[in-house]
Amino acid sequence: HAQAMTAEEASALRAELAALRTQVERLEARLDAADAGSPGASPSASATAPAASAAPVTTWKGAPEIGNADGWSFKPRGRVQIDVAGIDTPGATGNRGGIGSEFRRVYLGVDGKIPGGFSYRVEADLANGSVELTDVYLTYGPGPLSVTAGQVKPFWSLDEMTSDLFTSVMERAAFTQAFGFERRLGLSAQYKGKAFLAQAGVFGDNANDLLDDANNSFGVDGRAVWMPKFGDTQLHLGGSAHWRDFNDSAATTRYRARPFAHTTDVRLVDTGAIAATGERGLGLEAALLSGPFHAAGETFWQTVRRPGLPDPTFFGGYAEVGMVLTGDSRTYKDGAFDRLKPSSPITAGGIGAFEVNARYDHLDLNDAGIVGGRQKAALIGLVWAPIDYVRITANYGRLWIDDARIATAAGDRDYSADTFGLRTQIDF
Amino acid sequence: HAQAMTAEEASALRAELAALRTQVERLEARLDAADAGSPGASPSASATAPAASAAPVTTWKGAPEIGNADGWSFKPRGRVQIDVAGIDTPGATGNRGGIGSEFRRVYLGVDGKIPGGFSYRVEADLANGSVELTDVYLTYGPGPLSVTAGQVKPFWSLDEMTSDLFTSVMERAAFTQAFGFERRLGLSAQYKGKAFLAQAGVFGDNANDLLDDANNSFGVDGRAVWMPKFGDTQLHLGGSAHWRDFNDSAATTRYRARPFAHTTDVRLVDTGAIAATGERGLGLEAALLSGPFHAAGETFWQTVRRPGLPDPTFFGGYAEVGMVLTGDSRTYKDGAFDRLKPSSPITAGGIGAFEVNARYDHLDLNDAGIVGGRQKAALIGLVWAPIDYVRITANYGRLWIDDARIATAAGDRDYSADTFGLRTQIDF
Amino acid sequence: HAQAMTAEEASALRAELAALRTQVERLEARLDAADAGSPGASPSASATAPAASAAPVTTWKGAPEIGNADGWSFKPRGRVQIDVAGIDTPGATGNRGGIGSEFRRVYLGVDGKIPGGFSYRVEADLANGSVELTDVYLTYGPGPLSVTAGQVKPFWSLDEMTSDLFTSVMERAAFTQAFGFERRLGLSAQYKGKAFLAQAGVFGDNANDLLDDANNSFGVDGRAVWMPKFGDTQLHLGGSAHWRDFNDSAATTRYRARPFAHTTDVRLVDTGAIAATGERGLGLEAALLSGPFHAAGETFWQTVRRPGLPDPTFFGGYAEVGMVLTGDSRTYKDGAFDRLKPSSPITAGGIGAFEVNARYDHLDLNDAGIVGGRQKAALIGLVWAPIDYVRITANYGRLWIDDARIATAAGDRDYSADTFGLRTQIDF
Question: ipTM score here?
Fold first, then answer.
């Protein structure tokens, strides 16, 4: 239970600060005197002052962040996720315990700040033999309101907005994949208050899809989050709405999801291509963090606009609970879950941080004559962070499929399957 | 309503205070020790020189450049250009106000110096889902003469040699695109005097084209620039000559140019494929910078060598004037325009730098029986640099086409079109 | 009654703390600079130690390596190799003196260390218009035993394990290419004693090949090296064994090698596609370094497991001698040759380091009914390192081929050819 700081403690703190300030000023005066007194330094002394204000300051956040007092900063970024994963289905798909390995993600990039309230990120995923730009943007925002031009995630879902470095289980909720959540190039704005976050933007498409001259799709996306803190307890209540026009008379869309293992290209649920003119989505989000515990849940409805046909609405969602076993806690920042930092890493003789998560995931791709299948999954995940920026995740899940895309040898389309995975991850 | 500080925040504050106190005490101890040990500081002055030669020195040029007095240096490089652009034609091409967005360029790379007069650059463009190596070279040149092995621009045209970060309008002169100016792998030399620049080299082809085993093309390129400064006025007079053998009996070439908007793949002027054994080019360049004003103009003649057929000569050029409205001025360096630096950026309470440019562009792809079309364009561009390394460019242009590649619905090939664009750019 | 501190007071406090921290960091930077130049550093030296644990330390290894005493470090990595090379065959292949140029390798990446015994590397080759991940791994190993997850070379051959930056001739032994040595994703362990090295791992396939869902290949690879030092003389005796199952009933393999010039795609020896279920390999390695001299030799037997057919065993190997002419010597580290560092670089008025190497290379792809050809080669290589991290290599070789894949115009498959090459290289 978080107890407020009393006036006594506060005034002690203030006194200590004042003492420190006096001490620092004394040190500074001594250093100035030393500079002034150094041989032939009289011109160099005055030159030192501005130079010192420009002196670089390096801090560590996995990688060095080099900055200076003028407001410049620069930091390399990257992540590597090595997966061993697979599924075990009833022989239908030829995936009986099929196990595969891959680089799930290999990101390299940079973060930077430019004085005046500008910041940027340039990053790409190199895991697939090509370049897939991930976050590439320029943000301007000296205050709580900021404007961003570039490629970002269009404000979909707590699970999607949480970095893949910090998700509860290896792969995100099935609906985030099925409904095609991805980064897109656009212009957006964000207001971030103490307990309120609002995000909205207009977006074209993913940078690689925009290489196609015929792609004229256009969308509007918005999200609002109320994130008050009651003592020790962080609450998260949010919702998002999305509208998109494919702007292409011959367009189709396709909703499908891998069985929580990315090493396979098999999708047990899959609508196939649907002739469509656009789509719209609506999501609700709720989460709670309190000490070592957390709970989260989301629902999302995605509607396809079809030319001259009824518009199907598909549904997905999940509910999860989790607990950190080692006295640490999951963190939360700006409308999403953040890094799990071990308070007692192996370098301090500890065992790092352990987290256990359990999730129920639901995806229904059957509606209005479209039979894409229905998938329910129970997943359990174990996260171990021996030290900050290193993380190992193990997963097991059981899936129950109705109307599966791929039938068993006996023609059965209702069956269950197992999924498992192991991820080794570093980031900087 | 003022909410009380929680125990967590307070303890974090206290921890930070304690850390600060330790740090200050350590500083004090060091200063004490230094004071005690530095009686005659005069020897320390001479001792400083060699020690400093090992210490790294970080300077900021958009990103930190880390160097040391031994002559080593290293700097990350990059740029992001986000374009919204399009054309409006008379319905012929299906591009009536067609508007598109894209990453025009996403470069990441590094610059480095090695003692003894060596320097290198490795950079690639990631904007197109693949890797396109841009400048990748090693230069040796302790003095005014330098030799470069690697991929660079083969010394074509003032507009081409000026970095795309600093051009007057978003897209370069139509002839630079039509005549296939690109970076190529080769060996070159440069002499740079106070007012004279000479560049020449032998080149194969662009690195990606060299992946094709059948590509044996070979060229020789040279350029000379006289760049005297009269008081405040910078003059630029130059010329370049180019010769290339495709070394392939089945080779063809194709000259075409986008309508000053890169988001579309439409080219209104286009020769189609021409059977060719080689090509040669000749360019003239002139420019003048004086205070806030500048003027520039170029002409370029490109001749295709055809087997057993007359050799057509195509022509392109432009003339431009520009003015910086905010008391700043465009800069010039080593035979090309350089960065526009706002003297009063928004961080200093200013509005940054504004520049207005007007350009007439001409491209004639009709000759010797080849009808590629003729394109004239009047372009106006506005550049705003709120702070160094951030730049927003807006463009409008009117194009007049004769013998267009794409006819209107009525079969007309002589028409006019509009082009417009908006670019948001950062670099480091 | 103790009244709680309000949010306003708390934020004022926090701001003051942040300002103090900046001030202290600036002081620290100034003191560090002063310490670097101080003469009698003995008192200040001991005081520096604790401070250094927070302060970043930058060292140069071609590029700056930024680290700190907590055990973090970060260093950019890269290399550029520019080749001009070709072969001259008796007119059979259309390669009479064919000369080509290319970027042989353009690597960019990073190396990092995380406290607790973790280190990582992320690097990719951008030379081929795509992304080919090279070394991408996370290693844990605080002591002589280490475990590595990720993509590395599966412990094949001294010539393969030696970085391409430091090989004797431009292209490695023909068998390393013919038998498909490449980096693969897997899990491996290494024990490194003073004079003994053991490496073993299980591997899937190269990251780009794993993108194919049907790829289920699996292998086990191990290598042991005895590397005692007798006085000045370094001995290297090693062996490696390899086993691989393609796990694919339709699999084929193909063994072939370029003629020591990578600019051409021609292979004079080539088995064509062989239906195969797997392969196994066995290699022996020996080398000796003594002052300016070195000698090295290897043999490798590769056996293809064919379904219902005899299993052919192919053979390759080489023997080489070399000498550094400038009083320097080739170096050796952890079971492989290492960097040739000029003791008298051009920056010190010297001529850098010169090395001459002569190699005999043998590859026999004829066995058990498979006729892939037999290639013998005599190669001579000259290496010049004017300064550390810059290197120019020139090669000439004569090849004698039996049963060449490509016949001469007269139908002859037994002939000789010439190969030559020039490489300009930098790395960091």
Answer: 0.88
How many Cβ atoms from other residues are within 10 Å of residue B107's Cβ? 22
C132 and chain A in contact, CB less than 8 A: yes
Window 249-268 of B: residues touching A by CB (8 A cutoff) are: 264-266
Topology adopted by domain B67-427: Porin (2.40.160)
CA A133 to chain B, closest CA, distance in angstroms equals 7
| Mean pLDDT calculated for residue range C293-307 | 97
The span from the CA of A181 to the CA of A109, in Å, is: 22
Q: Is C210 on the interface with A (CB under 8 A)?
A: yes
Burial of C30 (0-12, 13-18, 19+ CB in 10 A): buried
- Give C-chain residues touching B149 at CB under 8 angstroms: 82, 424
Q: Reply yes or no on whether the pLDDT at B265 is more than 80.
A: yes
Cα–Cα dist A318/A159, whole Å: 10
**Tokens matching residue C293:** 């001299």
Closest to C389 in 3D by CA, of C324, C332, C342, C319: C342
* Top CATH class, C80-104+146-427: mainly beta
The contacts of residue A116 (CB under 8 Å, 6+ apart) are: A71, A142, B345, B346, B347, B386, B387
How does C199-231 read in b/e, with b if 16+ C-beta sit within 10 Å? bbbebbbbbbebbeeebbbbbbbbbbbebeeee
What does DSSP assign to residue B348? G
pLDDT score for B94: 66
Q: How many CA atoms lie within 13 A of A259 on its CB side?
A: 35
Task: Report the DSSP beta bridge partners of residue B221.
Answer: B201, B242
Q: Determine the Cα–Cα distance for residues B2 and A420; give it in Å rounded to an integer.
A: 49
More confident position, C1 or A319: A319
Q: Which residue of A111, A128, A137, A138 is the best one to mutate when testing the B interface, meaning the one whose CB has the most B CBs within 10 A?
A: A138
Output the CA angle C221-C223-C226, nearest 5 degrees.
175
What 3-state DSSP class applies to A173?
coil
As a whole number of angstroms, the distance between CA A178 and CA A174 comes to: 6
Cα gap A277→A250, rounded to integer Å: 8
pLDDT in tens, B329-340: 999 999 999 999
pLDDT > 80? residue A36: no
Which residues, 6 or more positions from A221, have their beta carbon under 8 angstroms from its beta carbon? A154, A155, A156, A188, A200, A201, A202, A203, A240, A241, A242, A243
Query: The domain A80-101+155-427 is classified under which CATH number: 3.30.420.40, 2.60.120.10, 3.30.930.10, 2.40.160.10?
Result: 2.40.160.10
The reply to whether A372 touches chain B by the CB within 8 Å rule is no
Distances (CA, A) of B115 to B139, C222, C348: 12, 41, 10
Chains that touch B (3 or more CB pairs under 8 A): A, C
The per-residue pLDDT for range C168-221, each reduced to its tens digit, is: 999 999 999 999 999 999 999 999 999 999 999 999 999 999 998 888 899 999
Which two tokens mark B198?
Answer: 């000479």
Pick from A4, A70, A109: which is nearest to B4 by CB? A4
Quote the pLDDT of residue B46. Answer: 33
| Shortest CA gap C67–chain B (Å) | 13
